[in-house]
Each structure stands twice: as structure tokens, then as C-alpha cells.
Write a structure and sequence with these properties.
The structure holds 2 protein chains of 2 kinds.
Chain A lengths: L5 E9 L5 E9 L4 E7 L7 H12 L3 E5 L10 H10 L5 H17 L3 E10 L1 H12 L5 E5 L31 E6 L7 H13 L4 E6 L16 H19 L1 H7 L1
Parallel strand pairs in A: 3-4, 3-5, 5-6, 6-7, 7-8
Antiparallel strand pairs in A: 1-2, 2-4
Chain B lengths: L6 E11 L2 E13 L9 E7 L9 E5 L1 H22 L12
Antiparallel strand pairs in B: 1-2, 2-3, 3-4
The chains are: A alpha/beta, B alpha+beta.
């Protein structure tokens, strides 16, 4: 019999400009562990995000999902998310600061293997792309159907989101995995094609997988968009990718 | 999609939530991923009072078809009510303050 164990809890972390925020943190007991920062989707820090955090922990990753809307609290995650929406969302700079803080938390743990990946869903996919092009220390990044990586309407750019992530691709400094549903409208097939063309042209290390019969958020079992077959295949890509790119330090330590 | 697009309607009225009645002056209206409704996209309405800080809300998440049905029923209820009660009685809502 294999003994399994996991610890899942709310923790405090130091985010952008030193602000103290809350995060959901799940990890298997044992060491050494690679870390993953999970960036939530726009509806916020909801039950599915916490399920996904535990799922990654189940597969061997110390996974932290920072609550990117904590500054609008206190309040339930949905109410806090509503305040953020009414204010036009969170600023990219602030999200990057929070992700950097979460990465620092993960690396500081005594059981950390030194490697940290980032994964994000929906708006968090866009944040992941942005982080992978902006932050030092990310060893692997997974963009799950992040919309607005390509900005076709310049009116979408504003003080909070001043740059189209695609324009930062030259600075991408880690391997990137992208998962997309072919029926998605944001990003649509053409936008995914154009993103891939830029990655290819710049010689970046990336893997893109596109799924027929799936649209936006096809991992999310709480929504009609859920596609079990495609979600299973996609999750397996995530686990393989992270195991490949986040395990090196562990191997080196064991050697 | 994650659109960040919010339509704001200025209101005069009240809404009842878990903490009882509150005055409201704004409805934030959007069509995006819901938090609770088992839908890919939902028409969300957050009734809030910006004048009181806007932190409390009464919220609904509706399917697109439901939202359109609600719009039609609101208009129908207003039309029928105004015929029944007369428009003049509802012309000066501020008088209730």
C-alpha cells in the first residue's frame, strides 16, 4: 500500500509592494517538492480553483493559489471579485508582484526543490504569459486558454493592462505550454495561430495543444463547458510538462 | 470571456440581502463567467450603493435567455402597473426619502 497525504490550508504571503495577502496552499507531505503558482481566473478564488490547487498537489507539486483580489477584502471571494470587476480588474503590475511573492514563498520552504512553475486559467492564462515574459525565476509556465494575449482592439489597453502580452514574447525566459479549445472565442483559433507563429519565429521553447470539441474553460467541471475527455488529456499534458521542467533540481540533489 | 466590461445603471431604490434592506444607487451589469450559476456565461447584476462605499451587494447570475425574459417581464409589469395605478404616483420617487 502506498501512503498518500496532503496538507491544504490558507496561508499568508507577501505580495506586491510587501502587501500581506492570503493564498490557498496545498502540498503533498514529503520532500523535495517542486513549487507551482496557480493564477486564478477572473471570477476569482473559487472552489474550482482550490480543487485545481489540490489536484496539482496530488500530483506532487507544492501549489499556491494567491488570492489576487485580497486587497478588496474582507468579504467572500465572490463579493470581493465583484468589487474588482466593478473597478475594471486588477492591474498587471500588481498581479506580477503577487506572483513573484508567491514564488518567493514557495522557494523559501525547507522542502522546496528550488524549481517553480506557474499555471493560470482564463485571465490567469494571460497573467501567466505575462509573468513568463516578465519575471525572473520561472522554470516552466502553462497558459490555459488565456484570452487577450493578442490584443486586436487597442481600446482594451489601459492603465491597468498597458501592454499586450504578445508584444513581450521576445523576453519569454522559460518553456511554455499552451492548452486551447478549438471552439473558444477568446482566444480564438486565429489568435492561437498568431501566438504560436510569434513563439516559433522567436525560437522559443513551447508546446501548444488544441482540442476539438472543447471551448473555453473545458477543465471546469462546474460548468457546461467541461469536456472530460479533453480535460483528462490536457491535465496529463500539464503534469508531464511540470514533471519534466521542475524536477531537475531534485534529480541534481539526489545525485 | 474575461471581458472586464461592466455597464452601470444609476438607480433609486432598495435591495434586501443577508443583512436586511439597504438603499441602492447602482446596478453593475455584465455578461461573463459566473461565480455560482452552472453556466459558461451569465448575465450578472450586482445591486450596490456606491454612495455607501459599494462593498455590500445583492447579486444575481442569470442565463442569457432568463435575462431577456426578465427584461420583458419588467417592462410588462411596469406597463401594466402604470395603467393600473397611474404614472403620476410614480413620477417623484425622491419624495419617499
Amino acid at each position: 500500500m502506498t501512503y498518500e497525504s496532503m496538507l491544504a490550508e490558507t496561508v499568508a504571503f507577501r505580495g506586491h509592494r510587501g502587501d500581506i495577502g492570503e493564498a490557498y496552499y496545498a502540498r503533498p507531505l514529503g520532500a523535495p517538492l517542486p513549487g507551482v503558482v496557480l493564477i486564478h481566473h477572473m471570477p476569482g478564488w473559487d472552489e474550482w480553483i482550490k480543487e485545481a490547487t489540490r489536484k496539482l498537489a496530488h500530483h506532487g507539486f507544492a501549489t499556491m493559489a494567491p488570492h489576487l483580489y485580497f486587497r478588496e477584502g474582507p468579504g467572500s471571494p465572490d463579493d470581493v471579485g465583484a468589487r474588482v470587476r466593478a473597478a475594471g480588474g486588477v492591474a498587471d503590475e500588481q498581479v506580477l508582484g503577487d506572483v513573484a511573492g508567491a514564488m518567493e514563498f514557495l522557494r523559501a520552504q525547507p522542502y522546496a526543490n528550488g524549481k517553480v512553475g506557474v499555471i493560470g486559467f482564463c485571465s490567469g492564462g494571460r497573467h501567466t504569459y505575462l509573468a513568463a515574459c516578465s519575471l525572473d525565476g520561472i522554470d516552466a509556465a502553462v497558459d490555459c486558454w488565456g484570452g487577450n494575449v493578442i490584443v486586436d482592439d487597442p481600446k482594451q489597453l489601459n492603465a491597468k493592462r498597458p501592454v499586450a502580452p504578445i508584444d513581450l514574447t521576445a523576453k519569454l525566459r522559460c518553456p511554455l505550454l499552451g492548452l486551447f479549445g478549438n471552439d473558444d472565442e477568446n482566444p480564438n483559433r486565429d489568435q492561437v495561430d498568431r501566438t504560436e507563429a510569434v513563439l516559433k519565429q522567436l525560437g522559443k521553447t513551447y508546446e501548444f495543444y488544441r482540442y476539438d470539441g472543447a471551448g473555453h474553460a473545458f477543465f471546469n467541471a462546474a460548468r457546461p463547458a467541461y469536456r472530460p475527455e479533453q480535460a483528462l488529456a490536457g491535465w496529463n499534458k500539464v503534469f508531464s510538462f511540470f514533471h519534466k521542467h521542475l524536477a531537475a533540481a531534485a534529480a541534481a540533489r539526489a545525485a | 470571456m474575461c471581458s472586464y466590461i461592466v455597464e452601470k445603471a444609476k438607480l433609486l431604490g432598495s435591495a434586501k440581502g443577508p443583512n436586511g434592506w439597504m438603499r441602492i444607487d447602482t446596478a453593475n451589469v455584465y455578461y461573463d463567467h459566473p461565480f455560482h450559476a452552472p453556466l459558461d456565461h451569465a448575465l450578472g447584476i450586482d445591486f450596490i450603493c456606491e454612495a455607501d462605499g459599494g462593498r455590500d451587494r445583492v447579486a444575481v447570475e442569470l442565463s442569457a435567455a432568463s435575462a431577456r425574459e426578465l427584461v420583458a417581464k419588467i417592462l410588462a409589469a411596469l406597463a401594466n402597473g402604470e395603467i393600473e395605478h397611474g404614472k403620476a404616483q410614480h413620477a417623484a420617487p425622491a419624495a419617499a426619502e
